[in-house]
Design goal:
By secondary structure, this protein is mostly helical. It has two domains: 13-109, Orthogonal Bundle (Arc Repressor Mutant, subunit A), CATH 1.10.10; 168-271, no CATH class. The chain has helices at residues 10-36, 42-54, 65-72, 76-88, 127-132, 148-153, 162-169, 175-185, 194-197, 201-212, 219-230, 247-250, 253-271; strands spanning 60-61, 92-99, 102-109. The chain has a three-stranded antiparallel β-sheet, with helices on one face. Strand 2 and strand 3 (102-109) form a beta hairpin. Helix 8 (175-185) packs parallel to helix 11. It starts with 9 loop residues before the first helix and ends with a helix.
Length: 272
């Protein structure tokens, strides 16, 4: 029986295969080095690394959500949130395409982009700078005695760490305003009792939803969110048990994500 590939063509095929492997490794390594260099939190960086690992020489890849979740160890809802955050930063573009067994999501890794973050300054006393620096003997300075008034004037607040500065810059969640919008848009749902709300787990959940994403720190977002709840008859009590959602239930992590995904899908269909 004649071989499918002539024996004299095998060395050429081997060279082509080796060249392709080297080219793919180079592309993958470049994309991975770029992904590692982005100043992101650990979950977002894991998702970006996974996409970069799948990307071809044009930065395109088609991994499924289940595959990304399996490779990163994150649940699919977290993967979706982090992909949306990467899109917001301009590091990834996402579109629907026809591929594989049907419709699939195509990701475009933007390796020429950088995440929005202040550059990290090099330490002033880095060893390589110390070796090249000319050191001079310190001057002897005799400080004058400091009076009590001068001590009070020269007192400075202790400097904050970058994390403390970031948390300090986030405005406090306006619970009363958010609850007022909830009552206005969803009067059919159980009302919030202020005395029971303050300091409760539900209040902490609302605070967490407010702080976790810059887009959530706007009262227009919360009006849109509650209007997305309103278009769901199930949440308004049209179910076999007559159950109705309340604000505490809506602020739980998984329920909050489902409402956002449903509202986003409805908005896309309305635009289409």
């Amino acid at each position: 029986m004649e071989p499918i590939v002539p024996s004299d063509a095998l060395p050429s095929l081997s060279r082509h295969a080796a060249h392709f492997r080297q080219r793919w490794d180079r592309v993958s390594n470049d994309a991975l080095r770029w992904a590692w260099a982005q100043p992101l939190n650990h979950a977002a960086k894991l998702v970006l690394l996974c996409l970069a690992d799948h990307a071809d020489d044009s930065g395109t890849c088609w991994p499924s959500l289940s595959r990304i979740a399996a490779m990163t160890g994150l649940d699919q809802s977290t993967v979706k949130r982090k992909i949306r955050a990467l899109e917001h930063d301009g590091l990834v573009n996402r579109s629907r395409s026809i591929g594989g067994a049907g419709h699939s999501t195509r990701y475009q890794v933007q390796t020429e982009k950088q995440a929005h973050c202040a550059p990290v300054k090099q330490a002033r006393n880095a060893p390589d700078e110390e070796d090249n620096r000319c050191t001079l003997p310190p001057k002897q300075v005799h400080a004058a005695p400091i009076t009590g008034a001068q001590c009070a004037t020269n007192h400075k607040e202790p400097s904050r760490t970058p994390k403390e500065k970031s948390e300090h810059s986030i405005p406090t969640c306006p619970h009363a305003e958010v609850i007022a919008i909830y009552h206005e848009v969803l009067p059919e749902l159980p009302r919030v009792q202020p005395a029971r709300w303050q300091g409760s787990t539900r209040a902490r959940d609302l605070q967490a939803r407010w702080r976790e994403d810059e887009r959530h720190r706007n009262l227009r977002f919360w009006r849109w969110f509650f209007e997305a709840v309103r278009v769901s008859p199930f949440h308004l009590g049209e179910n076999a048990r007559g159950w109705r959602a309340d604000l505490g239930w809506l602020m739980k992590r998984s329920n909050f994500d489902k409402v956002i995904e449903r509202g986003t899908d409805q908005r896309r269909r309305a635009i289409a």
